[in-house]
């Protein structure tokens, strides 16, 4: 019997018992859709987490190099610099380094404690970004205010609610930051769309902070922008090796780096393992559904004993009978798998609308669905199919 005839006969056999076929398919559909939903969300969250933990600059990856002095007092007092401009030039000469900058040129966050009335608050302090700063109440801080060292501040909505449940009343009031009073002129929304956002609670002009605290720029880190075809950790180690030889502070401490890629790889593996474990637990339902397939196939073999005898009497081989029932089992499980995949993906897609990451179909989940359904179809149909093929023709026709 050719392949097309086997498929046609399998389809007709399943249609003759539509209700039984649908009930059997439901178990597989539920199992597959559960696994696909969990896998899609898990892989989406894994990609989102790794992406947000990896600092990137356009198409390049960045890595930080820090200097740890043996005597911090000399550096914190401003007598010595952690890194000089010449150090940045040396770092830029290393192969694979696209650009070098001081880490706190654009961002710098620190924890501060301030008091309003009799209550103390611990918040993070950062500097205003003039290009993309957004406020929901009040106004932005201008570059002119930064240049003229104006003592103005933006605070997050959460911080404003801590100060006064009616956030509008916070505007125009002042907070003390390291002995200086800054007037609150605007309130910005907390970045809830990014689970790993590093947005400070309070933002003030950088020049104002430097001016009133006498804290000159003396960053203890530099950031390397590494070309995409170079390994960041290898490039950073070469920079450290060079600075250890010619760096301006080489005799007063040690240059070190932290490889973020190792951390993201580790987190990615943990998330992947967790996703697979949960998917495996959900996949237990597939085993139960497989037993349902086997039960249906045994029932079908018992009900079609006369059909098997007639086909054998007109020349059908044992292999034809076996292949016929295997085809029915595979058609049942594969079609269930396709439906389960679509339902599972749609569920994940709907859930992702409430999350900060998106899900997308990928070759892995599609291939996994196909493999699982084929395995279930073969494993749970092979025994009933062999039983049908081994039926004794004389006993059937007696």
From TrEMBL:
Membrane topology category: Multi-pass membrane protein
Q: Which InterPro entries has this protein been placed in?
A: ABC3_permease_C (IPR003838), MacB_PCD (IPR025857), Macrolide_Exporter_MacB (IPR050250)
The terms under GO molecular function for this entry are: transmembrane transporter activity
Q: What is its main location?
A: membrane
Q: Where is the MacB-like periplasmic core domain?
A: 21-239
Q: Output the Gene Ontology cellular-component terms.
A: plasma membrane
Q: Where in the cell is it found?
A: Cell membrane
Please list the residue ranges annotated as the ABC3 transporter permease C-terminal domain. Answer: 281-392
User: What are the transmembrane regions?
Assistant: 21-42, 274-294, 325-351, 363-382
Write out the entry's keywords from A to Z. Cell membrane, Membrane, Transmembrane, Transmembrane helix
Family to which this protein belongs: Belongs to the ABC-4 integral membrane protein family.
For this entry, the protein name equals: Permease
Lineage, broadest ranks: Bacteria, Bacillati, Bacillota, Bacilli, Lactobacillales
